[in-house]
Write a structure and sequence with these properties.
Oligomer: heterotrimer
CATH superfamily of one domain in chain C: Type I PLP-dependent aspartate aminotransferase-like (Major domain)
Radius of gyration of chain C: 25 Å
CATH class of one domain in chain C: Alpha Beta
Strand content of chain A: 5-15%
Distance between the termini of chain A: 56 Å
Radius of gyration of chain A: 25 Å
Number of helices of chain C: 14
CATH architecture of the largest domain in chain A: 3-Layer(aba) Sandwich
Number of strands of chain A: 15
Strand content of chain C: 5-15%
Strand order of the largest sheet of chain A: 2-8-7-6-5-3-4
Order of helices and strands of chain A: HHEHHHEHEHEHEHEEEEEHHEEHEEEH
Shape of chain A: globular
Chains: A alpha/beta (446), B alpha+beta (129), C alpha/beta (489)
Helix content of chain C: 25-40%
Helix content of chain A: 25-40%
Largest interface: A-C, 205 and 202 residues
CATH topology of one domain in chain C: Aspartate Aminotransferase, domain 2
Shape of chain C: globular
Number of strands of chain C: 12
Strand order of the largest sheet of chain C: 1-7-6-5-4-2-3
Largest sheet of chain A: 7 strands, mixed
Chain lengths: 446, 129, 489
């Protein structure tokens, strides 16, 4: 099954027009010895047959429709209104290319402009780009922005240990070709206050997560002030869904706010595609990587939108570009924009508060169980840590029999947190689901 | 196209006007035409900075290109043209006059010998097409 | 024919989606950490739907018409792929759930790794990079790690042909290397003399796009790889133009050591208005240990009773993670479905017809448009959008006028080595009628350029919008909207 419309006759006509006898003659430039290899791939299937195979593969997974999911750790199971997918299925959106020809791309361009606006409104920042691949690469780009801002004269990057482990790994991968030190995250014991002590004149960027990887939220004003005093840039890695309820990082003095936009209308889809949010202050706009959409007018006097400040980008600046990013997360931008429009001011606030209340109820109930203890001492949003009476891996295996996907095993990333589980609760969890989890934990804990 | 006689030029399209030991630097009419409508000028050096020949001290941006501007000769910065932040289009309309980018005190006048005069630069531009 | 902003449809107190009230006791909100204002729009569901449907109608897409964008491979996006990606087990699984509870997904990822490696002639692949440029950076970091592992610290340069896509030098710079540009010769191939002169023990590798951005298969590709290997360097292949090579030749067999694939080009996954893409990398045997962490592997071989047990494996000398989680799984599902339905024969047919279509357009336009490297091309070719007898007409004007004929223009102004370039890539999913209509439009435009040049200079006329003022956009820099009503609680 292929999607090729040509008939035999048309092929012949076309070959004749080109002046060739057969298709093979198109390939004379290819070295004969390696031409036309036999590819060892399975025999093709028709659409009908492939559906069966895909169904079997799909069912060879446990999914979060049939299992209650209390797993978060950077990807969250939220309610997605039906309108989102309906709009995503409009092929004028998904079969469109990057909007380099604005006259026929206003749908995409205006959507991005609205997205940029909403990201600014959520974070309190002045400008947003049109997305990065995910929150982790957005953080890496924030580091690059800071390095360029200081003209490579500062070489220390300070990261909180409570930033998502994947994010910190990605920053290290991105920076392996550069001469700098990444520190601050060696021990989970390093608090926000401790980070303040570590800022010095050689620090280019200090970054924290809000809520952090362990669900905690705290006032970051002092850290923001300390960064500013030292001339370092202050980056907050935020959960944009949480910003439906929490104070925007702009109020702590953030210079850059990045984050993972998956919670805004994008299903967990086994890890991707997600949405990297990148917002910053007006003064850094030219140092920002990624596409940017700006407002303008056309020859007919209509208000319209175009990609702007394009000389920053790779296709013009080439090796001098601040980033190599070309393709971004276009369709996910649409998903989150539709999501935020559909949920609106009241919907997002309510979903965030529901997540908050349900998580606190779950934490309280689990804390009351023998053998389990809530680890979080201060405020948390919708994720919290629980010390368990036995290894998390064992508990999670047993929970599957209760149709529950348990939380994240923190022992994998933090030495001090063996047997500690990170649990997330969203607005999707009804009280019965939470009570069922508590019962299951009670049973498997003994 | 203008090629003022009293200036010296580089292959990267910078010009320098020297009066005594004071130099004024900008980019040429050819350069602004290649860039087309300039939308942004950023001067990254500040008064008091000591720069060498070849150091980048500014960047000029249009909708289709962004160019770095380099020191044609070394020197100490005595003034930068801050008007260009609000009126970048002056680079298009007056590249040799109002849109000077920077003034310096030359550190080594002999560096001027390596630059092109107006005639040489005009030929250089003609060959580039 | 504009559409208002979503904010203009907003009214205070209007609700969209409604959620149930809390069924658990309310916990006190964290003091000092709750926001007082949330300036988002307040619209009803019907407003949302109408707004975005109307916006969609201002777009052009492959499902509307021909999109001959060179280097982008705008082939038809099969609908079955869209349904596949939405299946419950694919869309509603959490990346961190127990791998034993995600065997379907892992099996799919493993299969795609194997298939991509087979198609490219490599020993293995990683599906983690999120896009082509991301794959490039990954590949260059792999090369870097390879040399570092050998204890070779002298290699600071990457050679890049002047016809390369801008992401190539950008990715190189990001990875900490210096870029050395190699020119193309008069036949559009990499200049062999320059290449040989540049290859020494300070060169880490060469980035090669083959077919190149002129749509030409380099006539010396095997020699190029030999020369680079001889000086101890590696060859990185930019696989953006893979559509011409499927089943025709494998980059690994030509001497490429590491290559990125663009699933959103060659393997039919949709462009989505700018993304998401997916840029897996394939590598030769000696580079397997350096792949990003993790790859999918078989932990326990299959038995007569049980399928293999798949899991995540960290390659022993991995360059590390290049993004969170495992890659763009939703895009992977679509590519898997596509390859599963085409098979080897289908992939070869795709390449054959892509190359056939490109050459058919080329021979029909060669008398009207200058084609600098006019010989059998691969899946795309570059024409010049400029004539000496009408110097005021530029490629841009031709592009804009094409929109009046109902086509999306070809790629403009790239590659940089051709003056006023129009890069035309039809792909295999266009019929002869579609190509003939395009050729006809291009012929008419060539005529209009002489008779009524103003039609081109002021085009487009028939699209929802006319030319947009980019200078104004860059000067006023309005990048987001903040209506005053937003500042009220």
């Amino acid at each position: 099954m292929n999607y090729i419309p040509h008939t035999d006759r048309e092929r012949q006509e076309m070959l004749a027009a080109i002046g060739l006898a057969g298709i093979e003659d198109l390939y004379t430039a290819i070295p004969e010895e390696v031409r036309f290899p036999e590819l060892d791939l399975p025999e093709p299937l028709t659409e009908m047959e492939v559906l069966d195979e895909l169904q079997a593969l799909s069912e060879a997974n446990l999914d979060t429709r049939h299992f209650s999911c209390f797993l978060g750790a950077g990807a969250y199971n939220h309610f997605i209104p039906a309108v989102v997918d309906h709009i995503l299925r409009r092929s004028e959106f998904y079969t469109a290319y990057t909007p380099y020809q604005p006259e026929v791309s206003q749908g995409t361009l205006q959507t991005i402009f609205e997205f940029q606006s909403m990201m600014c409104q959520l974070t309190g920042m002045d400008v947003s780009n049109a997305s990065h691949y995910d929150g982790a690469t957005a953080l890496a780009e924030a580091v690059i922005l800071a390095l360029n801002h200081h003209r490579r004269k500062r070489s220390k990057v300070l990261l909180s240990p409570a930033i998502h482990p994947h994010f910190r790994e990605v920053v290290r991968t991105y920076m392996q070709g550069m001469d700098l030190t990444i520190h601050g995250d060696e021990s989970l014991k390093t608090s926000v206050k401790d980070l303040i002590e570590k800022i010095d004149e050689d620090t280019t960027l200090v970054a924290v997560q809000y809520p952090d990887f362990l669900g905690r939220i705290e006032d970051l004003t002092a850290l923001g002030q300390a960064a500013q005093d030292a001339g370092a840039l202050f980056c907050v890695v935020a959960n944009p869904f949480a910003l439906g309820m929490l104070k925007p990082p702009a109020e702590f003095g953030a210079d850059i706010v990045v984050g993972e936009g998956q919670p805004l209308g994008i299903p967990t889809s086994f890890g991707g595609p997600y949405l990297g949010v990148f917002t910053t202050r007006q003064k850094y706009v030219r140092k920002m990587a990624g596409r940017l959409v700006g407002e303008t007018t056309d020859t007919r006097g209509q208000t319209g939108y175009v990609l702007t400040l394009t000389p920053r980008e790779q296709h013009i600046r080439r090796e001098k570009a601040s980033s190599n990013i070309c393709t971004n997360q276009g369709l996910m931008v649409l998903a989150s924009t539709v999501y935020l429009a559909a949920m609106g001011k009241s919907g997002l606030r309510k979903a965030a508060e529901l997540s908050y209340h349900k998580a606190h109820y779950a934490a309280q109930q689990i804390n009351a169980l023998d053998g389990y203890e809530l680890w979080n001492k201060g405020p948390f949003f919708h994720e919290f840590v629980v010390r368990c009476p036995r290894p998390v891996e064992e508990i999670n295996e047993l929970l599957l029999d209760f149709a529950i996907i348990g939380g994240y095993d923190l022992g994998q990333d933090y030495e001090d947190l063996q047997d500690h589980m990170l649990l997330a609760v969203t607005e999707l969890m009804a009280k019965e689901n939470i009570d069922h989890l508590v019962e299951a934990l009670r049973e498997v804990g003994s | 196209m203008e090629f003022p006689q009293d200036l010296k030029y580089t292959e990267n399209d910078e010009w320098v006007r020297v009066e005594g030991n004071a130099g004024t630097i900008g980019i040429t009419e050819y350069a602004q035409e290649q860039l087309s409508d300039i939308v942004f000028v950023e001067i990254t050096a500040s008064t008091g900075d000591e720069l060498s020949k070849g150091d980048s001290f500014a960047s000029v941006e249009s909708v289709k290109a962004a160019s770095d501007v380099y020191m044609p000769v070394g020197g100490k910065v005595t003034a930068t043209n801050d008007d260009l932040a609000d009126e970048p289009e002056k680079v298009n309309s007056s590249p040799y006059g109002e849109a000077w980018l920077m003034k310096i005190e030359l550190s080594d006048a002999s560096e001027l010998d390596a630059l092109m005069d107006a005639a040489a630069y005009e030929t250089f531009c003609a060959e580039r097409g | 024919m504009t559409e208002v902003l979503i904010y203009d449809l907003s009214a205070p107190g209007r609700e969209g989606v409604k959620l149930p009230n809390t069924d658990v006791p309310e916990a006190p909100l964290p003091e000092g950490l709750v926001r007082t204002m949330l300036p988002l729009p307040e619209v009803s569901e019907i407003d949302v739907v109408r707004h975005f449907v109307r916006l969609s109608q201002l777009n052009y897409g492959i499902d509307i018409g021909f999109y001959p964008l060179g280097s982008c491979t705008m082939k038809y996006n099969p609908k079955i792929n869209e349904d596949a990606a939405r299946m419950t087990g694919f869309a509603f699984t959490h990346p961190l759930q127990d791998p034993e509870a995600a065997q379907g997904n892992l099996a799919m990822m493993y299969a795609l790794q194997e298939w991509l490696a087979e198609i490219g002639g490599f020993a293995g692949a990683s599906l983690q990079p999120a896009a082509g440029a991301h794959g490039e950076m990954t590949g260059i970091l792999i090369i870097r790690a390879y040399h570092a592992d050998r204890g070779d610290k002298k290699r600071t340069k990457i050679l890049i042909p002047d016809s390369a896509h801008g992401t190539n030098p950008a990715s190189t710079a990001m990875s900490g290397f210096d870029v050395v540009e190699i020119s193309s010769d008069e036949r559009g191939n990499v200049n062999m003399d320059e290449l040989k002169a540049a290859c020494d023990d300070t060169v880490a590798g060469l980035m090669l796009t083959n077919p190149n951005t002129l749509g030409l298969f380099d006539e010396h590709v095997r020699e190029i790889c030999e020369v680079v290997h001889a000086c101890g360097g590696l060859v990185y292949g930019d696989g953006a133009n893979m559509n011409a090579l499927l089943g025709v030749v494998r980059p690994g067999d030509l001497g490429i050591d590491v290559l990125h694939y663009n699933l959103h080009k060659t393997f039919s996954t949709p462009h989505g208005g700018g993304g998401p893409g997916s840029g897996p990398v394939g590598v030769v045997e000696k580079l397997l240990p350096f792949l990003p962490d993790p790859v999918v592997g078989i932990l326990e071989e299959a038995t007569p009773e049980l399928p293999p047990l798949y899991g995540f494996i960290k390659p022993e000398k991995s360059i590390g993670r290049v993004k969170s989680f495992f890659g763009h799984f939703g895009v992977i599902v679509r590519a898997y479905t596509y390859i599963r339905m085409l098979g080897a024969a289908g992939l070869r047919a795709a390449a054959d017809h892509a190359v056939l279509n490109a050459n058919y357009i080329r021979v029909n336009l060669e008398k009207l448009y200058p084609i600098p490297f006019n010989r059998i091309c691969m899946h795309e070719f570059v024409a010049e959008g400029h004539w000496d007898d009408v110097p005021e007409i530029h490629a841009l004007d031709i592009a804009k006028r094409l929109m009046d004929y109902g086509f999306h223009p070809p790629t403009n102004y790239f590659p940089l080595i051709v003056h006023e370039a129009l890069m035309i890539e039809p792909t295999e999913t266009e019929s002869k009628q579609s190509l003939d209509a395009f050729i006809d439009a291009m012929q008419k435009i060539a005529g209009e350029a002489r008779e009524e040049p103003q039609l081109l200079k002021t085009a487009p006329h028939k699209t929802p919008f006319g030319r947009l003022d980019e200078v104004q956009a860059a000067k006023q820099l309005i990048l987001c909207c903040r209506p005053e009503w937003m500042d009220q609680p």
